[in-house]
Amino acid sequence: MNSIREIVDVIQKRLKTLGDPDKIPAIAKYGITPEQAFGVKAPHLRAIAHEYRRNRNLALALWKINNRETRILATMIDDPKQLTEDPMETWAMEFEYCEICDQTFMNLFEKHPLAWQKAIPVAEKIAALDSKSACWIAADALRELKSDAVQKRLKN
Fold it and tell me: 59, exposed or middle or buried, with CB in 10 Å at 0-12, 13-18, 19+?
């Protein structure tokens, strides 16, 4: 059996092969500015994630790399049943741009039992960060979460 490090290495090689460097300037205009990005399309990421489904340790290792694609994969691979409050808050405080925030919530956090209970407090913490994009993300999230329509849905 391969170690987590070996699997991460294999995944990174695949990402480099699947990536399109010409896409990186285009995604930068949407605020996607991670340390690295390969320019891999979402269908390719979903295919890779499908191979490694529900692997908490692999997800943690991929998140640490701080690469657009590895972080998205981490959210697709992680197991919401093994996710605890502390990593949810830690990851939320590390959102650097909207795409990672959106992917993390859609792929992982919303599947966790504490998701709706934690959403407003975490968004408030994000709003306090010294980052224009983080404040924008949080303000938008808070407006949505506090809306009558969402509150009504949560109570049902």
Answer: buried
Q: Chain centroid to CA 59: how far?
A: 10
Tokens 């995944």 sit at which residue?
11
The model's pLDDT over 71-121, given as tens digits with 9 standing for 90+, comes to 999 999 999 999 888 888 889 888 877 788 889 988 998 888 887 787 888
DSSP string over 96-155: -SHHHHHHHHHHTGGGSTTHHHHHHHHHHHHHTSS-HHHHHHHHHHHHHHTSHHHHHHHH
Tokens found for residue 22: 């010409």
> Contact at 8 Å (CB) between 137 and 126?
yes
